[in-house]
Design a protein that fits this description.
Elements: E1 7-12, H1 17-32, E2 40-46, H2 52-67, H3 73-80, E3 83-87, H4 96-104, E4 110-115, H5 122-131, E5 139-143, H6 151-162, E6 170-172, H7 180-190, E7 204-212, H8 221-225, H9 228-246, H10 255-268, H11 274-279, E8 281-287, E9 289-291, E10 294-296, E11 314-319, E12 331-336, E13 343-350, E14 368-374, E15 378-386, E16 394-402, H12 403-406, H13 414-424, H14 433-452, E17 458-461, H15 468-475
Parallel strand pairs: 1-2, 1-4, 2-3, 4-5, 5-6, 7-12, 8-17
Antiparallel strand pairs: 7-13, 8-11, 9-10, 11-12, 13-14, 14-15, 15-16
The structure holds 6-O-phosphono-beta-D-glucopyranose.
Catalytic activity: D-glucose 6-phosphate + NADP(+) = 6-phospho-D-glucono-1,5-lactone + NADPH + H(+)
Pathway: Carbohydrate degradation; pentose phosphate pathway; D-ribulose 5-phosphate from D-glucose 6-phosphate (oxidative stage): step 1/3
Function: Catalyzes the oxidation of glucose 6-phosphate to 6-phosphogluconolactone.
Length: 485
């Protein structure tokens, strides 16, 4: 693993929720592991008029909460030495001059500007960084999602950021790509000779990708109102997972080799427009129900949500990939809040045996590969085996790979990996501009179709697997969702 060179990391929105919940604890962990070089500063920037001491005290509390048992006062004392705070109103160019002065002390260091702010501030911050002479060759900028609200706004951000930084300096985060389990998908596909000959339309019947959450909108009602599940989860996380499942083998793990292949998948997604978008999608919105025995309110009762809101908290889609490898294979994508279980999984259903030699009561079931990403990481391959006894009765049995049992090392959070990759200058797990663009080009017609057809979300009770129409969508193809099998 390449060494981390001396760095100054400036976190805009440094006092905000993401910084406190994820970024600072991630950096703390990496400091504790000895992965950060001694000459590494973390400078939180925000518009709040607080002192460095106050900031450090806030950050300490956040680390105590989110690092949990691994938190240590001694480690904290050394980590806190790295922390600094500077008041910057991101909309005021003049506020960037003191920042330039602070960074000017170490002009040769790697500079990372992490924009953990709303996307409305991205272009302004980049311009001000440029004007303050901070967009130097050794600078990198990290953009958090959501990267815009639609194709136009995403293109606007990308265009404006590109006026200041070149593409190899821009790190667009999709935190799903930093998850250990998602990288394991790459290992599974390209580190084993077993799957590749079967990984195509001849052997695979359908693919299902589910990102189900038990949480609701977690106090972010007003943000979520203007977003919805398609923009929040499908445009980025789900499509990125789909790319990794469906892409051709890249020639290497280099950033552009991988990103070129992902882009081809995004561009080959069968367009869902007009009526076909309506027929191949299901929108849902949760109503009050119970999650593991605890009552929870419906979406319309959440703070910041309009009483007649039509924002979807669930979406299921059927799509295809128009390539020789995948033509005709349905890909079912689904995500939702307040679902029965928290699970992120990819299910690959293989085709049936071409001819069964067994009796009708013992027909072999198609093989199934279940790759679970969350909450526990594992791979199960269902094979048919003979049940003990005199009769030839077949039963599906899982070959089970449990990563928690196999690897006992601490499981790093996605942000740890992504922050370290950024410090090391590794772009493979970050989205390139054309990927973001292609994803929006596919998503936008679905949003348009919903609007034009006045498609209202179907309600589902919190704590279930979504509206009945979701099962019907998969049922039309003659299939069912994994949990219904
Ligand atoms: C975020 C979405 O990108 O991902 C949230 O904005 C969602 O709405 C979250 O809850 C899910 O991430 P994870 O890592 O908890 O699966």
């Amino acid at each position: 693993m390449s060494e981390v060179k001396p760095f100054d990391m400036v976190i805009f929105g440094g006092n905000g929720d993401l910084a406190m919940r994820k970024l600072i604890p991630a950096l703390y962990h990496r400091h504790q592991d000895g992965a950060l070089c001694a000459e590494g500063r973390i400078i939180a920037a925000s518009r709040h008029d607080i002192s460095r001491d106050d900031y450090v005290a806030n950050a300490r509390e956040a680390c105590r909460t989110y690092v949990g048992e691994a938190f240590s006062d001694t480690v904290w004392a050394a980590f806190a030495e790295r922390l600094d705070y500077i008041r910057v109103d991101a909309t005021r160019e003049a506020d960037f001059l003191p920042l330039a002065e602070l960074l000017g002390a170490y002009p040769e260091r790697t500079r990372v500007f992490y924009l953990s702010t709303g996307p409305a501030l991205f272009t302004g911050i980049c311009h001000h960084l440029g004007a303050a002479g901070l967009a130097t060759e050794n600078a990198r900028v990290v953009l958090e999602k959501p990267l815009g609200h639609d194709l136009d706004s995403a293109e606007h951000i990308n265009r404006e950021v590109a006026r200041v930084f070149t593409e190899h300096q821009i790190y667009r985060i999709d935190h799903y790509l930093g998850k250990e389990a998602v990288q394991n998908l790459i290992a599974l596909r390209f580190g084993n000779a077993l799957f590749e000959p079967l990984w195509n339309r001849s052997s695979i019947r359908d693919v299902q990708i589910t990102l189900a959450e038990q949480v609701g909108v977690e106090g972010r009602g007003s943000f979520y109102e203007g977003t919805g599940a398609l923009r929040d989860m499908v445009q980025n996380h789900l499509l990125q997972l789909l790319c990794i499942i469906a892409m051709e083998p890249p020639t290497s793990i280099n950033p552009d080799a991988v990103r070129d292949e992902k882009l081809k998948v995004l561009r080959a997604l069968h367009p869902l427009t007009g009526r076909s978008a309506i027929e191949n999608s299901v929108r849902g919105q949760y109503k009050a129900g119970a999650i593991e025995g605890t009552s929870v309110p419906g979406y319309l009762e959440e703070d910041g949500v309009a009483p007649d809101s039509t924002t979807e908290t669930f979406v299921a889609l059927k799509t295809e990939i128009d390539t020789w490898r995948w033509a005709g294979v349905p890909f079912y994508l689904r995500t939702g809040k307040r679902m029965q279980e928290r699970v992120a999984e990819v299910v690959v259903n293989f085709r049936e045996v071409p001819h069964s030699i067994f009796s009708e009561s013992s027909m072999p079931m198609p093989n199934r590969l279940v790759i679970t990403l969350q909450p526990d990481e594992g791979v199960e391959l269902y094979l048919m085996a003979k049940a003990p006894g005199d009769d030839m009765q077949l039963r599906p049995v899982a070959l089970n790979l449990d990563f928690a049992q196999t690897f006992t090392t601490r499981k790093a959070d996605a942000y740890e990996r992504l922050l370290m990759d950024c410090l090391r200058g590794k772009l493979t797990l970050f989205m390139r501009r054309d990927e973001v663009d292609a994803a929006w080009r596919w998503i936008e017609p679905i949003l348009d179709a919903w609007e034009q057809h006045g498609d209202r979300p179907k309600t589902y009770t919190a704590g279930t697997w979504g509206p009945a129409a979701s099962s019907a969508l998969v049922g039309r193809g003659g299939y069912c969702w994994h949990e219904e099998a």
